[in-house]
Structures are given as structure tokens and as C-alpha cells.
Amino acid sequence: MALHARLLHDLAEIQKHPYPNIKLVPHEHEIRTACLVLTPMGQDPLHFTITFQNNYPLKAPSVRIDSSVHHPNIFGGYICASILNTRDGWTPAYTVKGIAIQLLSFFSSDNLEQDHGGVQNLNRYRLPDGRWQPDGGAFRCLNCLYSRSKPGNLALAMPSYSINLGDLLGLSNDPEPRASECQSTSGRGTELGVPLSHSTSTPPTNAAADEDYEVTPLSDMPAEILVRICDHLESEDLIAFARSWNRIGSARGIVTQFNLLRNRELQCFVLKKSFDELELGVGVQVTLRGRQGQITSEFDLLSAQAYNEHSIRRSVHGLPFRHHLPLAISRRHYQRVRERIQPRLAEIATEARLSTTLPSEVIVSFMSDIVVKLCDQARDASDPSALGRASERAIESYYHLFHLLLCQASEGPSIIRKVNSTLAGVLNGRTSKATIPNLGHLLISLPISDVPVTEKLLKTIVKEAITRNVVWMFDRQQGKGMSELAYLEANEVSPYRLQKTFEASKTSYTLLMFQNTFRQTINRGSGEKRKSVKQMRDQLFDAHGSPPKGTAARLARRIGQLQAINTFPHFINVMEIEMPTAAYFTTLLRGCVIESVKKGYSTWGISQGPALELRRQVDPNVQVRDVWPEETGRRPPPGPAQETSFFPSNRDGGNNNNNWGGLGHGRGRGRENRREGSPVSQQVSSRSLSAVRSGDEPSSQFGRPTPGQ
């Protein structure tokens, strides 16, 4: 029944909202067969017969062209078009109207790409006046009375009528006239599917009943009633209503306040029903990358019914998925799906080989993977407009997951207590991987914690991220291969270290900046006005999980801006940290190298002598160190003369693919980006340090740097 209802929805849509030059006439006694008449601009009408199988829209309908047309993609009545004939070309998201529009474009184009490659010039198949050449005899349809004997002439007059689907299906109390009851006409300009006349009766009234009701002016109605009225309007009528009355269409009007237009998009892409009728979620795929899987989703809304009963396992764009995750779209919807969220998250966590199946932590891992993918797309994008649309969609999906996290945190106080405890430990210096397995996950959780986000907290997190990124910066097999930075130079200020340390882990720092930007966007406030987790959750319930108007576009643009940041000074500014001196920060970066080994994140994969030789090849300004820091025992750090891996042998101090830092280490892609052998003057611009203050150490710093600068 669900699939049959979907077919009726599609047929009703094209009748209620017709498209220029497209007419659909369902057969009177067979709802699964219809006549489609397309009229490409400046050409004769073309007749098609559409047959819908019982499993439509899971399978494309059969479309046969009945008109006589000479076309490179038509063989008899068969149309060679990917949307109709291939698994990859068809998606259940297509509607009958969408199919008709694509076919109209198919027969209106001057050129047509072929599946086997190349482009066909369709003008070769047209007459001098632009109409299609005939390729057979005349065709006449008794159902819609279409008839054409030769190009340009309609042999018979074509009566016009429309078929009311309610009447056709026995659902209408005031049926439209049948085709046999419609007037016929001769002459030019007759349109298919348009009624010539239709008398309507005046609906009966009950004056006595009217006396029982009190008339309330529309302007005095409460918002809840206006919302109900708007819900019954077609989208075009709602837009017109909004334009005519500020209470409906202003920036703070009913449409914006209750996301009325956006809510209409919140429907299953297969069954075309909303979250009020179905349990909606998204398809989720896990792709194994290294020791841990990456969780991805196209975030096309899909109902549990379509997933379970009709085995939908591909997104609108044909990408596969295995899991279905319900979303918290509204309060009532969440209550319907809440019991199924935890088992679905556990399934995803198991396939992704996560270290935990706790719902909140699986959601956070999913959110982290969304941002990683978003930053990768921003870095590799060639089409800015396409990137903008994809980025906005990713931000919207991020908000939906954040809403799900807020729902979990509201019901499980232990989630917030755990985040609070971890942050308290960070402020007391407990930052090891044993305490914080994943820095990125901690940053994502900041908006739900009760611990104030201070400059000290952000400095500690940034310093720990730099320390964790060291091994990925040095290692040639899995990281960026910048082992020359293992040499602890004597320079008070090292432009090379300052620039290259950032470049080596740029994606990681971009992720840090995004999470801090998102936290600022959420803006819980402070003091008595600080929002509770439940208040944030309820605000997103009111918005059906979507970000405030304009927020997705603004954050998408911000991603591009963050991606363009190439230096620590700009990074530190975005992180809202007081700018240290260049000398202080150089010392801090050297200290992070030593700290990385001390914490077991890395080893000395090369001794200082060979590292110095590598460094001199790219940094002629490097100064040789005579005095070594106390942390290395006042002597050069040990290491092999021949460079080896910088990862610890047991990898306990290393990173999986979703760990900051390493999040953003490039997953082995970075070595090709390194410019070896070029002088430092060409690689590091002095302007990259222009934002770093010189002079005395500021009163507020990252903490005591390792001595020995």
C-alpha cells in the first residue's frame, strides 16, 4: 500500500502543479498506465506511454515513445536513457513530474552525451525548421485523443480535459467530467489536459449551524492556529500568503519562526511522507580506513519503513549504505524513535571498530567524521558553487547529530559529568591519551559541558594537539616526512619551524578552528542567562533539528576561510588565545617534540647529526646547538644514524585515523606535498610571522616552554 500511495502522490503532484509543455493523462481504468504528451519548444507534441510496475518507485517506470521520431537514442519505441534503463541512473527520489521534465529536456537539447562517450549533435536528426524527422507512420491514441499523421499537422482535433485523480480513484465528491463528457473543438491553440468548461455547484450551507460559531479576525488568531492554516496551503499559496502579510512572511513571521517551508522538505525520499507520518532517519555507511572505520552519510531522509520493508540501501545519488539511524526531528517524532536509536548506534560502532558503543560517543565520532570529510572537500574542491551547497548540507547534518547528542545528554546526566571531569583534568595537566583518547571528540563535547571554556583550557588543548601531531609531521611512511624538524635548532626564532609545523598538520588545526567556531555559534551564554542542555535541545526541537536561518551558509563560508589560514598567528587568533612572541612559540614547538617522545606518542627516529644535515638542505639559516635542554639530559637526544619510523614499536602512543593529532595528518597523503631542496627563503615568507608580537613574554602564555632555547 505504501508504494501504491507513493504513485498516487506523484500523479496528484503533476496534476496540481503542472509543468509547461507537459501533460499527463492517466488511463481511466488502469491507474498504472498513463499517456504523457511533451511539447519541446518550437516542435510538435510527442506522445509517450508510461507503465508503472507494482514496485514503483523502487524501479523506474517503463516509458515507450509512440510518436514517429528519428533520434539516435530511440530504437523502435525504446528510449535509451540512463534514468530509465540503468540502476545507477534511477533513484526512488525521482517523481513522475521529475521524469517528465528530464524527458522534455532530453528531446529539447541540441546535443546529447552518450553513455559510451562522446556527444551527439541532435540537429542532424531534425528538419530545417527544427522539428524532429519522422521515422514511421502516424499514431493515434484513443485514451487522450492524441493524433498526428505527419509532422506539423494534427490530423484530428484534440479535445482538452483534465482528469481529477480523486474522481478517477473514487475519492472525489465533486468529480471532474470524464473525457467522453468534454466538449471537442477544432482549430489551433488547443492544449492537452486543460478543461474547456466545468460547471461547479455551490456547496450547501447551514445558516443555523453558522450561528453557533463566533467569527475571529485572522489578525487576532494565535500563532498555533495560523501554523495549522499554513500547513494546509500548497507551497505556492503559502509563499503568496507570506508576501501579502508581514505576520506570516516577515523575518520573524510564522513561516520563519516555525520553519514551515523547510519542514516540507523533511520527508522520506522514497515514500514522500513527512516525519508526522513516518519514522525518519538517514542511511549510514562505515568505510574501514586503517584500524578504525569512517562513518559517513549523505543525510537523505529515509523512513524506517522504506529501509526495512523495501530494502532501500542506496542514497538519492546512488551511494550505498548499510545502517539506518533515526533522527530527533520533533518531540513527538523523537519519542517514537528513541528506543531504536541506541541499538542502531551500537551496530554502527561495532562495524566501525570504535572503542565504545556508548550512544553519545558514537554520535560524537560521527560528528567528527563529518567535519573531517568537510575539510577534505574544502581543500580538494574545484567547483566553489558545488562546494558551497555540499558544505551547507554537511553543516545541516552536523546540527542534526548535535541535536541527537543533546537529547542523549538531557536524558543521561552521566554524559555531562564525564565531559566535566575530563575538562577538569585537562586544567590540572591530565592530557595524555589514557585520559583523552581523542582530542577532537573532547572539543565537539565542549558545548554540552558545564566547565567554562577559558583561554587556559584552549591553550592546553592546542598544545596537546601540537604534541600529538609531532609523529605525523616526522614519519615518512605515514606522515608528512619532515624529519628535518627533529633537529632541535639553537635559533631563538625559527621561521622554518614556525611555518612547517603548521603546514604539516594544517587539517588538524582547521578542525580545531571549526570546532571553536561552532562552539561560538551555539553561544550558550554565561551567568544566569547561560542556556541549559535541555534548553538548547528544545530550541533545536522547535527548528526540527535544523540550524537557524543563514547559519549553515555562514558556517560553510567560514570553512573556506579557515581552510585558507596557513600560519600559527592566524590560527591562534581564531582560537581566541593571546598572541605569544615568536621566540616563545618557537621554544614551545621544540618542547612539543620532546614532550611527544616523553609521552610515548613518538620515538627519535633519527639522531641529531643526520637530522641537522637534512635540515641544512632546506633551511640554510638553521643554527647548530651546543647546549642541550634539561629534558634531553643536557645531551643530544638518542636516535639511529639511518632514519627509521618515528612511531613507537608497539604503536600504543600512536594514533588511529580519527585521533587528534593525528586527525588531519593526511592519512599518508602528505609526503607528495613537501617541497624538498628549496631554500627556506622561498618556502617561508617573513609576512607569515608579521602577526606575532616580538618582545617580552606575555603575562598569559601556553604554559612554561621547555628550556634550552
UniProtKB/TrEMBL annotation:
Gene3D superfamilies: Ubiquitin Conjugating Enzyme (3.10.110.10). Coiled coil: none annotated. Residues 650-660 have a biased composition (Low complexity). Residues 1-151 form the UBC core domain. Residues 175-210, 626-709 are annotated as: Disordered. Keywords: Ubl conjugation pathway. Residues 679-709 have a biased composition (Polar residues). CDD domains: F-box_SF (cd09917). This is UBC core domain-containing protein. The lineage of its organism: Eukaryota, Fungi, Dikarya, Ascomycota, Pezizomycotina.
